[in-house]
Specification:
About 25% of the residues lie in helices and about 20% in strands. With about 450 residues, it is of the alpha+beta class. The strands form 5 sheets. Strands 9, 12, 15, 16, 17, 18 and 19 form a 7-stranded mixed sheet that branches.
Amino acid sequence: MRVDVVMPQLGESVVEGVVVKWLVKAGDAVTKDQPLVAISTDKVDAEIPSPEAGTVVELLAKEGQVVPIKEIIARIETEKGAAAPAPPPPRWDEETEGAPGAMARKTGPPIPPAPRAAAPSPPPPSPPPAGEGSGIRVSPVVAKMIAEYGLDISRIPGTGIEGRVTKKDVENYLLRREAAAPPPPPLPPVPPPAPAARAAEPPAGAPPAAARAAAPPAGEPPGAGKEAVTPEGDRVVPWTPIRKKIAEHMVASKRTSPHVHTFAEVDLHRIAAYRAARKREGVSLTYLPFVIRAAVLALREFPMMNAQVAGETTVLKKAIHMGVAVDTDRGLIVPVIRNADALSVEGIAKAVDDFAARAAAHRIMPDELAGGTFSVTNPGAKGNLFGTPIINQPQVGILRLGQVVKRPVVIDAGGEDSIVVRPVMILCLAYDHRIVDGVAGNGFLFRVREILEAGQFGS
């Protein structure tokens, strides 16, 4: 019996995925749950396991191809000699002229073969189309446009998978070329109606007319209309779906929320002592779960910080779902610890460790990235003194850990000032000033500091 392997729907809003790399080849024997293929979506990277044990008989999608969800990408034979089902008719695709491929988007009934049998008229002389000696793979539509306009595809920046040139890239290139073309010769000048009418003299210090004519229009960025030139030795790295999503999310957050950043210097000597005692018991803890636990306790007292923006309303969330930023080799993701207020410091530490391990293996699911009500980000041991984080929309606040350093601190020792060396961290809170006023934002961070310095993390 043959079993179909389909592109899964990794989250409600995910409609397609990119086949990044096949981990098996046709003819390989596989076991159940063995990773078959690495895929990437705009939310997460993942490895798709084999649904059954058997032999891989077909790989139906190429590496770099964009595949809609629920579409078959491979087949596995679980019982030798079983009759294979007839393959479905190929979908008609506007971009690839009938052949399913990486640029597939629009579908419909296949075009009957008879009308397409007519030989097309010979194209005008042009450079060899992409794929014939150029080593660059493009769709038939793009190759036809390259030949029709006599373009050099190596001069067109590609925005598709692995830098591939798309139909849209060619259209944009043609528009830029038209914009950069010299203007038509001017019409003969019309004599002025009266001798008194004179052209206004240019102001003192103005550039010559030729320089003014060559200057770009106001508001147009320098270099607009010119081709992107990559110097020798430079490497162009196309954005992955996750990188595109991160870029869109960060820009949207800065554009949407008026960010206010406030800082607190925290004495961590009590937490350092607790960590040392637990380490002697065989339990290794970082400072991160302590900060998360302190933030959770402070959110109970400042519910305005545990909120989301919905249009022109503020939704105060009852549950505390803590987003924790995790770095991966393909970009930053923020998995969510559900009901973090129900966990102890040790429970939070286990959840963070689990996220880190599964993120490194690309096993975080999109549903684990949704629903956060507040976020904490920790750049790690090499995170520098402090930083100013960007709010994870639609939340209204995010807390960033700084580097833990030893510093002289003045304390009250029996009514006398005394200088001691303590481990100190600078925390930075970013909050949305549309929703959170300065009193609430500063009060929340002050409370986090109090909890950390007191070392009290009870329920």
